[in-house]
Fold this protein.
Amino acid sequence: MSDAPGAADAGRGAAAWPTLDTDLEGAAGAPAARPKRVCIATPDILGPIKNGGIGTAYHHLARQLAAWGHEVVIAYVNHNAADAAQMAAARALYARHCIAFEPVVPRPAADTPLARVPAPGWTMLDWLRARERPFDIVHVPDWHGLGYGALLAKSLGLAFGDTHFVVIGHSPSLWATEGSRQLVHTEAELGWVFLERRSVELADTFVSVSAHLIEWMRDAGYALPARSFVWPNAFPPPDPAPAAAAARAARAGAPLEEVVFFGRLEPRKGLLLFADAVDRLVRRGRAPARVTFLGGRSPRVDGPELIRRAAQQWPVAVRTITDAGADEAVAYLARPGRLAVIPSLQENCSMAVLECLQAGIPFVAAATGGTPELIDPGDHPRALVAPDHIALGDRLAELAAAPLRAVRPRRGFDHVLDVWRRWHVQSVPFAAAAGRFEARAAAAAAETPPVTVCLVHHERPELLRMAADSALAQDYPNLDAVLVDDGSRSPAALAALEQVEADFAARGWRAVRQENRYCGAARNTAARAARGEWLLFLDDDNVLFPDAVSRLVRAARFAEADCVPAASIRFTGDGDPRADGAPLGAPIRFLGAARAWSHFSNVVGDACALVRRDVFEAAGGFTEEYRVGLDDLAFYNRLIRDGRRIEPLPDPVYYYRMGGPTMKQRNRSAEAAQRRILQPYVDGLSDEDRAWRAYAAACAQHPGRHGAHLVTRLLLRIWRRSSDWRARWTPWLT
């Protein structure tokens, strides 16, 4: 990446990344690129949000793109998008820059244990699909996987063949948690780890705003896209007006009068480190005259309360400012004699550092993460300090004894902007990618490998007819089916079975009756009797859409997947969900192979899934313990363990019936079911390793009775580091 800012800092393997020049038009006779229609989808943007790294970065990118002549739409996906007055103000703010601002309120996830899935990504998918005109480019952050739904749909060949998705690496949740020296507190955070990684991996282009972050991702096991670059955030150059230049000059050479902590008021941004450094100065009798804390509040910790406790014994004037916007914060720091202190324990491409560099504000920052990449190496000894309170205190004492000086940026702001500008004028690479998408979609649609529907039933005759009819109504040309009755005895069930068996026999399809052995055993019986290369499992209380098999097969072939769990539409009652006026609910969608979360909850898929027969057999099929549930998640966990590709279909292709009679008798033991889904991850481990895993599962089930946070974090870190459990487990424990 010789042309891209940050290329020299990319660390080991940097030469593997493509240069920007290889993707740019410029050959003689190349067609002139038209302005692009660009969407910036973000949960954070200046205007509705006063400050924040993601919001500041996208604010400046949107303004630059509009200034370069592109049509820009900001999709603001946040729950406060329902605030009409605030959204009207944001529309007016961005309209002044010829940018459309559209608030998008995330819909709640379906209220079922089968769908504990963060909702904004699905909301974003549906919003993008509903657009009358598609976007040429969609920018979306990695944070919390906002783009995952749309990226998943594209990876399955469902939509967005003409849209180029750019995922920008801003702040992966685990990266931030580790940098904050904090623990993983909720199961949802395990989902964010998966969503963020898969969003990066599915991107058409990935941009890391620091070499530090891309190295962290590589170490964490990300499969980075071929089109991956290291570019700092697009940020405007210094104001060239004479008055602005004079103000910058006035700040240089002024004596230190006030030390200003600049950043969100939380430990990750170095709040406690800074307080300890001031404590050290106070004890040595060298405290500054004034100390100010300038930054937004954190949702996790009470920053102002931490400051109040730390400053109780300081003989200095202390001020805390939490409501300043980005421009207001810079204006405060711009007064001569003020030194910004940015002591972050973990940083990517710090907007606080960029703001100080642009405005010529003197600062000192912790030499962590991507911060050194932004600063001229000649200024590193003066502007950077180890993330240690003693080193920071000593540096502040040194700076108080000499006139303040501005810090120089490593690269000119104009050069960074030129890289972003030139990338957006491309057309040929995007058109070629769209052509490849269309060719793959056509090839996937033309393939019709044999598929067997594996329908299982137990004592629900009133529902069996609807499920069987939905299989018979499929439009897929290369289909057969197997019906397995799991020990029904009632006269009504036996009569219904005879009717369905006759209809199946007319198609050359089969039916098998067996003693009651429970769901997993019934599904395995159906798989053994199947003829297809692919298996689609169907319970008797669910109803397939007529094109369910066709859509699942196309998606599986396009993505080269081993297993495609199906999304569904909720339905309550014992009636026909296909009838007019049927009480249908929200879609139930799944994440996919979220390995860490799948230790505890089913976010992978329902039993209704299309799976390659050879993959099913290699995994050993479903477990068959009698009256012990979660056999579907146990199966999925074996696929995850074995490295199989599980790609859930986000589009519903069947009706999932909620409530009513169940094919499953009451489970004998919830703990036995939890042990079942854990088993794929403990096979082959030592006794102590198995005990730790079992304890972690108990922590997730009963967090009030166990030290859940520590063990869950331990489990997640091991999962991140390696699939070689034995080699990696012991060092982390010791």
